[in-house]
Structures are given as C-alpha cells and as structure tokens.
Amino acid sequence: MIKLGEKIKSLRKQKNISQEVFAGYLGVSFQAVSKWENGNTTPDVTMIPAIASFFGVSTDELFDFNLFETEKQVEAICLEAYKYRFTDAAKSEAVLRDGLQRFPGNDIILNNLLYTLDYQTRADEVITLCKTLIESAKDDSVKYDACRILASCYKENGHRDLIKPTLEIIPEIYFTKLELMASLLDGADSYEAAQKQKNLSAEDLIDMLIVIGKHLKENGETEKAVSQFKIALKVMDAFAEDFVEEKWFRDTVYGYTQEQRKEIEMLLAE
Fold first, then answer.
1. What is the pLDDT of residue 65?
2. Residues of the domain holding 113
3. Is the pTM of this model over 0.85?
4. 70 falls within a domain
5. How many structural domains does the chain have?
6. CA distance 231 to 226
7. CATH number at residue 48
C-alpha cells in the first residue's frame, strides 16, 4: 500500500502538478489522492490503468499495466472521433469524452478534444484545457499544439495582448520531423511523410501569401498585394489534378483551400 502511494506521489511531483489537478483528471477528490499518497487507502483496482496512463509509466512501474496496449486503444478512440470532427463536432466530442472515462487525463485525447470545442461559445473551457496541457503534457507536440490553439482562442475573443506571449512558448524550428523522415527514410515511411509534409507546406504557403497580401493592401501597396494573392491562387490551382490519399486526408489541398480562394477573390474585387 505504502509503496504504491509513494509511487503516485513521486510521479505526480515529477509531472509538477497538484493533488487537486491530478484528482480532477481522475474524477475523485483531492482528499482521496492525499489518502493514497499517505498510504491510508489505495485506489480502486479499476483506476490503476487510468493512473498509469496519466503518468505514462511502464508495466514494471505500476502493477501490471501495459502502456503499449493503452496507446493503441487511445489511438483507436482518437481515430474514431476524427471521423466526425468536421461533420458532427458533438459526436466527435462524445467519443472523446467516453475515452476520457476510460483514460482520465490522457494528453492525446484531451488534445483531440480541443478540436471539437468552439473557441467563442466555450472559450473558458478551451483556455483552461490548453493551459493544463501546456503545463503538464509529456509530449512536446501536444504542448505546442495547445499553445497554438490557445493563441487562436485569444485572438477570436479579442485578447490580442495575450497572443504573442503564448506563441513565444513555442521554440523556433527550421525543419520538421516530417521533412527529415521524407528525406532520410525509404519506401512507405518516406512516402507517407512526404505526402503529409507536401499538404502542410502548401496550405501554410497559401496562408502566408494571404497574410502578406493583406498587410501590403492595408499599407496601400496594392500592386504588390495583388501579386501575392495571384500567387496563392496559382498554388491552389496547381493542386487541382492532385489525388487524395484517403488513409491520411479527406481531400486535396485544392479542396481544402476553397474558403481561402473565396477570401482572395473578395480581396481582389475590393
């Protein structure tokens, strides 16, 4: 009993979270957590997998918990939720909420949950969840994605003074893992990474051209602004003949960027 409580306390301190935060993830009182750590009681056996999942410990570290198996189950939950993310956000959220019942506080599920929440009507929930992930996520990609979402939420709700400090948390990088995988791996691994990076790079390029064009337009440099908008349209059109890898995407860059096309056409018409 005492050893398990000590282990929970040690893992909690390593993660740098309070008993209240940990208890909130598990849906128990902080007094219950305190009793576990003091060795007065032990968690119900049904909670052991959730506790181990939260801390990301190995099988040997906390009873007979299989972390690899949990990761597979979490991935399956997120893939199921993703099916409805763009067509039925409420259903996607429900799938993820059910997943959190099984794996309380799981960073990956919580990160996916953020994509189902409306930044304006549920801003407080989004902000709280983002701050929690920024503080405690084990995976840097989750932490920095939470920074991005938090900054976007601040922008949509008029908190412009909080955007830059939030984005400053994200380190500057000049290459991505996908780029390196595409360049250095072979076969199917290289192909998958290249496909994903191709779409990301194209969408980012289009977005940046629009940002630059808007800035130039606002500063009266109309000719330069028009050039940027036209380049963006050419990039979109270049993907009109692309094909969809349905394992990873719902549409091509051409299909994904039709809203940007409408925006550019309006800017050009002004």
1. 46
2. 79-167
3. no
4. no
5. 3
6. 9
7. 1.10.260.40
